[in-house]
C-alpha cells in the first residue's frame, strides 16, 4: 500500500480527474458531506465550505492510495473504502468533507480521495501532509489488512522511466552488478567509477563512516534513497566487511545533513517539516498534477518526504520490506515499484487551479 499526498487551490480539476468515469472508469466508493448529483455539485459543496476559512491558501486535499496488483482479488469497493477511511482517521483528516473515487484503468488497485482541508467547523486541517506519519500508517494498515508489500525494483520496467527516476534505477542496477565482483569499499568505488557512477562515503564528527552518496552526472542520491539495501551498513554486510560500530540510522542523517540540498529522487527541494513529509521524504514542490504540491509514502518500502511529490515516495517511507514506503503492508524490501512507472506516465497535470 502506498500513499501520495498533495494539496492545492482548485477543486474542479481534481474532482473531474478523480471522478472520471469515461477514461478512468471511476466509481465513487464512499463520501461525506457532499452532493453527489454531478461533479459540479461535488465541487460546489467543497467550495462553499472552503470559503469559511479564506485564510487557508491550499484548501484542496488530495490523497491517492495504491495497492499491489496481487491484492486485487480481495479488495472489494467496501474493503478499500474501509481502509481509506481508517487511513484518513489516523492521519487526522476527520470532521470534513471527502469523496473517494476508485479507478480501474491500471493493473494495480487505487483510489483517489478528494477532501476539504477546511473542516466542518471552519478550522484548517493540519498534520495531514506529513510523509513519515503517512509512511507509518500505510505500513501498519498494510500489515493489519494482510496486504502485499512491493516486490522490489526488479519488476520495474526501466524503459518507461525518465529523468531522475531513470538515473536512480541505473545506479541501483549498476551497484547491484558491481557488488558481485567486489570485496572492499575501495574496489566497489573503482568498479562504479569505471561504469560512470561516483561513490563517496560521508563521515560523522568523529571521522567514522556514516553514509554513502552515489552520483551519476549531476544527480546524486544517498544510499538509502536508492534502496534500503544500499545504505553504508548494508553495503558493508554484502561486501563481507565488519561494520558493527556503524549506526544504520546515520545513513538517513547523511542526506538530511547535506544542508537540505535538492532531494534528487524527486528533483525538488527537500522540506522535511512541510510534510514531515511526509514519506519517502517529501519535497516542497509542485505536484505534476497541476498546481498541487505533493508527497509520496508507501508502506513497506521507501518513502519520499517533503512538500513535493517525490518520485521515490522517498525511500524513507517505512515499509518493512523497504522501509520506507512504497509497497504494501508486509514484506521487508524497499520499493514502491509498481508505482514508479505510473508516476512517469502521469506527467500531465489534470488539476486546474479553480474552485
Largest sheet: 7 strands, antiparallel
Please count the helical segments.
10
Question: Helix and strand string, N-terminal first?
Answer: EHEHEHEEHHHEEEHHHEEEEEEH
Sequence stretches where pLDDT stays below 50 over 5 or more residues: 244-293, 300-348
Q: Which term fits the overall shape?
A: elongated
Task: Write down the Rg.
Answer: 20 Å
* Straight-line N-to-C gap: 30 Å
How are the strands ordered across the major sheet?
Answer: 2-4-5-3-1-13-12
How many β-strand stretches?
14
Helix content: 25-40%
The percentage of residues in β strands lies in 15-25%
Average pLDDT? 76
Coarse structural class: alpha+beta
Can you give a write-up of this model?
The chain has 355 residues and is an alpha+beta fold. It is built from ten helices and 14 strands. It has helices at residues 11-18, 39-50, 77-91, 131-144, 163-179, 185-194, 223-226, 232-239, 250-256, 340-345; strands at 2-8, 27-32, 60-66, 98-103, 110-116, 198-203, 209-216, 219-222, 262-263, 268-269, 280-283, 286-287, 292-298, 304-307. It has a seven-stranded antiparallel β-sheet with strand order 2-4-5-3-1-13-12, sandwiched between helices. A three-stranded antiparallel β-sheet has the order 6-7-8. Strand 7 and strand 8 (219-222) form a beta hairpin. Helix 1 (11-18) packs antiparallel against helix 2. The longest helix has 17 residues, at 163-179. It is elongated, with a radius of gyration of 20 Å. The two termini are 30 Å apart.
Amino acid at each position: 500500500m502506498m500513499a501520495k499526498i498533495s494539496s492545492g487551490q482548485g477543486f474542479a480539476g481534481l474532482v473531474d480527474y478523480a471522478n472520471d468515469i469515461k477514461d478512468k472508469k471511476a466509481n465513487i466508493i464512499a463520501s461525506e458531506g457532499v452532493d453527489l448529483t454531478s461533479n459540479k455539485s461535488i465541487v460546489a459543496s467543497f467550495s462553499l465550505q472552503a470559503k469559511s476559512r479564506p485564510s487557508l491558501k491550499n484548501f484542496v486535499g488530495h490523497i491517492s492510495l495504491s495497492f499491489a496488483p496481487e491484492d486485487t482479488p480481495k479488495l472489494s469497493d467496501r474493503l478499500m473504502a474501509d481502509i481509506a477511511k481508517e487511513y484518513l482517521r489516523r492521519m487526522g483528516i476527520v470532521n470534513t468533507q471527502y469523496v473517494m473515487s476508485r479507478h480501474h484503468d491500471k493493473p494495480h488497485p487505487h483510489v483517489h480521495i478528494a477532501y476539504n482541508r477546511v473542516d466542518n467547523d471552519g478550522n484548517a486541517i493540519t498534520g495531514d501532509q506529513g510523509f513519515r506519519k503517512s509512511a507509518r500508517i500505510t505500513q501498519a494498515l498494510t500489515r493489519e489488512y494482510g496486504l502485499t508489500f512491493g516486490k522490489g525494483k526488479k519488476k520495474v520496467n526501466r524503459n518507461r522511466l525518465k529523468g531522475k527516476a531513470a538515473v536512480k534505477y541505473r545506479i541501483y542496477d549498476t551497484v547491484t552488478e558491481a557488488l558481485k565482483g567486489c570485496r572492499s569499499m575501495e574496489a566497489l568505488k573503482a568498479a562504479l567509477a569505471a561504469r560512470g557512477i561516483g561513490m563517496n562515503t560521508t563521515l560523522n564528527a568523529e571521522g567514522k563512516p556514516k553514509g554513502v552518496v552515489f552520483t551519476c552526472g549531476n544527480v546524486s542520491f544517498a544510499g538509502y534513497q536508492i534502496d534500503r539495501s544500499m545504505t553504508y551498513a548494508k553495503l558493508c554486510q554484502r561486501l563481507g566487511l565488519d561494520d558493527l560500530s556503524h549506526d544504520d540510522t546515520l545513513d538517513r542523517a547523511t542526506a538530511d545533513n547535506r544542508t537540505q540540498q535538492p532531494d534528487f529522487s524527486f528533483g525538488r527541494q527537500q522540506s522535511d517539516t512541510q510534510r514531515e513529509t511526509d514519506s519517502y521524504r517529501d519535497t516542497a514542490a509542485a505536484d505534476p498534477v497541476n498546481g498541487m504540491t505533493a508527497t509520496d509514502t508507501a508502506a513497506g518500502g521507501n518513502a519520499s518526504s517533503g512538500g513535493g511529490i517525490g518520485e521515490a515516495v522517498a525511500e524513507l517511507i517505512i515499509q518493512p520490506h523497504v522501509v520506507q514506503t512504497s509497497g504494501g503492508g508486509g514484506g521487508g524490501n524497499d520499493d514502491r515499484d509498481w508505482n514508479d512507472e505510473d508516476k512517469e506516465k502521469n506527467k500531465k497535470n489534470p488539476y486546474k487551479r479553480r474552485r
